[in-house]
Amino acid sequence: MTDVQILTIAIALGTSSLAVLVGVLLNNSRLNDVKELLTAKMSAGNADLRLVIERNHSELFHQDRERTEDRAVTDAGCSHRRPRF
Fold this sequence. Notes:
Blueprint: H1 3-77
């Protein structure tokens, strides 16, 4: 093999390797961007979900308290207790 052939092979392999390396690095940065975007969206969705859960919990607690108070008033006016099912 001549020096020119070795140099040609080295340049071809080096160029291919460099192209693959650059492609991997660019793809990795895009994947990191997507990961950060998904993390931000999930955090926002979790915050909205927590708000809905807290609101529903407050409403259910309020309804339960009203029912308990209504039962206490009803039970106080009756001399006998109804069986609860």
